[in-house]
Amino acid sequence: MIRNYERVRYAEKPVVVFDIGNAYTKFGFAGEPSPRGIVKSEVKCPEAKEIRRIFSYKDSEDLYQLLVEFLQNLFFKQIVISPKDVKVVVLESLLTTTQFRDTLAKVFFRHFEIGSLMILSSHLVSISTLGTETALVLDVGYEEAILIPIFEGIPVLKAWQALPLASRAVHDCIRKEMKDTIPDLELSERIIEDIKVRTCFITTRERSVKLNDENELSPPPAVKYPGVQNFEIPGFVREKAYEVLWDRDNDNLSVPTMILDAIIKCPVDMRRVLAENILLVGGTTMATGFVSRLKSELLYLVNSNLYSEKLKVRTFKFHTTPSFANYTAWLGGAIFGVADLPLRCISKEHYLKTNRVPDWANLMDNQKILTNCGL
After folding, report:
1. How many whole angstroms separate alpha carbon 185 and alpha carbon 199?
2. pLDDT tens sequence across 187-219
3. Which residues are within 8 A (CB) of 312 and not within 5 positions of it... i.e. 6 or more apart?
C-alpha cells in the first residue's frame, strides 16, 4: 500500500493549499479530505525572542519577514516539501487587505519561487463542499464574524455583514469574569482558549434571559481546571462566556441580526432560498449549542417588532458540512486545487513581469477575464 506522503512524493506537481486565519492556519495537499495540519498563525521572532502573530504586523516590511519565517516552517518542517515551482492555493476573505495579499504573493514568488498561485474567496469555496451554488455563508473565526450571501455562485456584496463578535470577544469575556472572581489569577491566551473549549457552552435562549437573576436560576456546577495553576471555573462563567455573541449592542446588532439584515438587503426572490441554505464555518460555530441557539434567536427576532414587518421569512435551515466547520473553507480549496482553472492562476513568469496581483475589483483585470471568456 502506498501511503499518502509517498503519493505526494512521486507526484510531479503537488498543489499545496493554505488557509491562513487570524488565529490558526490550515495546510495540506489538494485532493485530500482533510488538512495535513492546523497550527497557530504565529512565529517566534528570532531577534526579539518573542511569539508574534502574523496579523500583528507593523508595515509591509514587517509582514514580509513574518510571512517568510512562518512559511519557511510550514514548507520545510510541517509539509516537508520544496516550494520551488509548486502550485499553491491560498484562501482569503473578501475583506482581506490589499497590503496583505500583495505581500503574501511577493513572499511566495520572490522568496520561495513557487510555480503558480491561485487566490480564492473562502466564502465561495466553502459552498463547493455542499455541491450547491447558493448559500448564506457565516464565518465566525477569531477576530470577527463575516457574512456574505452567495446566490448562483455570485456573492451579493451589497448585503455583506461583519461584526467583531467571535472567539476573541469570548476570550475577553472569560478573562474579565475570571479576573473578577480571582483577582490575583493571571491567565495566558492558551489557557483561556483551553477553558473555553473544555468547559464553556452556549445555553438556551430561555435560560439566557434569566442569567442576571441569581435567585431565579441556579448556575451549572463549577469545575476544576487541572494544571500547574489549580483553580476552579465557576458555573456562571461557563454559561455566560458565549453570551456576547447574542447580546445586542446599542445599535441592536448581534450575530443573529447579521443574518436577518443580510437577507433584507437581498432581492425579495432570494430571501427564502438564502434563509433555507445557511452555512456556518469557522471554529467558533463548533461550540456546543451554537446552531440551536442561533436558530432560536432567529425565530424570536423575526417575530419581534424589529423584523416582523421588514421580513416575512419564518423558516431557517442549516447545512451540515462533510467536514468540521473549522476547516470547511480549506476543504473547498482542496477541491478547487485539483481543477484546472488557468484564468484564476497567477504564474511565476506573469508575476515577475508585471509585479502585481490581479484583483477582481480592478476593472482592467475584469476586462481581461471577460475577453478570454469571449464576452
Report:
1. 18
2. 999 999 999 999 999 999 999 988 766 666 788
3. none
